Amino acid sequence: MKPEETISYPEVERQLWHIYREFFDAAERKRRWRVRDDIPWDECNPNLDPAIADVVESFCCVELYLPDYVGKVLPIVRHSKGRSWFYANWGYEESKHSLALGDWLVRSKHRTEEYMVDLETRVLDQQWNLPQESHLGMLAYAMVQEHATFLNYRNLRQRVQAMGGDPALDKILALITVDERAHYSLFKSFYDLFLEADRDAALAGIRPVLNQFQMPAIHDLLDNSQKRIARIRDLEIFSEEIFFKDVYGFFLQALNITRAEMRGPRVKKSLAP
Q1: Residues 6+ apart with CB under 8 A from 57
Q2: C-beta of residue 48 within 8 angstroms of C-beta of residue 108
Q3: CA 100 to CA 82: how far, in whole Å?
Q4: Which residues are CB-neighbours of 195 under 8 A, at least 6 positions away?
Q5: What are phi and psi for residue 5, nearest 5 degrees?
Q6: pTM to 2 decimals?
Q7: Given this structure, which CATH class describes domain 9-258?
C-alpha cells in the first residue's frame, strides 16, 4: 500500500475479526492453562520475602476490577465484533490471573482466606472508570497497559527468582507473562490498523495515554496506595524510569511515532486582537 493510501473502516473491521480469530485459534492450541492442574501448588514457599507477597496482593487487587474493565469497555466497542469478542476472551484469561494470584497468597500462607475475603470486599466497594472516552483512546490504553503489565509480571518473576524462589509463583508468573504478551500483541495489531486507516485520529487516541500514564486502580482506588507503589518501586518492578525507557520509548519505536507527533499538531495563533 502506498504511503498516501488509507484503508476503509469496513475493511478495518474485517481485518480486526481476522486477527482475533487467529489469536483465538493460537490460544486454544498453545496457551490455555488450568489454575488447578498446571501449577505446582505443593511447592509454594511460605518463607519467601514478605515484600513479594505485598506486591502480589497489589497486583491481585488490580485484577479484581475485572468486572469494571470488561463491563465498561464493551458498550464502547459493541459495534465491533472483533474487539468485543476479544474483550470477552480477554476477561476469561484475566480472571485466571486473579484466581491464581489469590490462590497463591493463601496456599503459601502469606495471607489467610479471611483476609482475602475482606480485601476483596474493600476493593469492590469502589468502581474503576474508563480513563479514556473514545474507542481509539481505550484501544491505545489497553495496548499500553498490557505491555506495562507484562513488564510488571516479568520483573516480579525475576525478583522472586533472586530472593529465594517459589516454584508455584514462578509458574504462575511465567503463564501470566505469556498471556499478557499475547494480549499486547493483539491490541497492537488492532491499533496498527487504525494508524493506517486514520493516523491523526489514532495519534490523538494515544497521546493522553502515554503522556498521562498510570497503572490502573493502584493510584486512585486501592487502600494504602502510596505504600503499594513504593513497594513496587523499591523492588524495581515498575517505576517512572522503567516507564520512560520500556513503555514510552518502546511505543515510539514500536509504532514509528515521533516525539513531535506525541506533542500533537501545532495550533496556529489567532491574528485577532
Answers
A1: 105, 111, 119
A2: yes
A3: 27
A4: 202, 203, 255
A5: -85, 150
A6: 0.90
A7: mainly alpha
Furthest-apart CA pair in the chain: how many Å? Answer: 75
DSSP 80: -
Residue in the structure block whose three cell numbers are 509463583: 169
Domain ranges in the chain are 9-258
Give me 238's grid cell: 515498575
Instruction: In whole angstroms, give the CA distance from residue 104 to residue 44.
Output: 7
pLDDT tens digit sequence for 230-257: 888 899 999 889 999 999 999 999 999 9
**How many Å apart are CA 213 and CA 122, to the nearest integer?**
25
Q: What value does the mean pLDDT of the chain take? A: 90
Q: For position 230, what pLDDT does the model report?
A: 86
Q: What is the pLDDT of residues 44-98, one digit of tens each?
A: 999 999 999 999 999 999 999 999 999 999 999 999 999 999 999 999 999 999 9
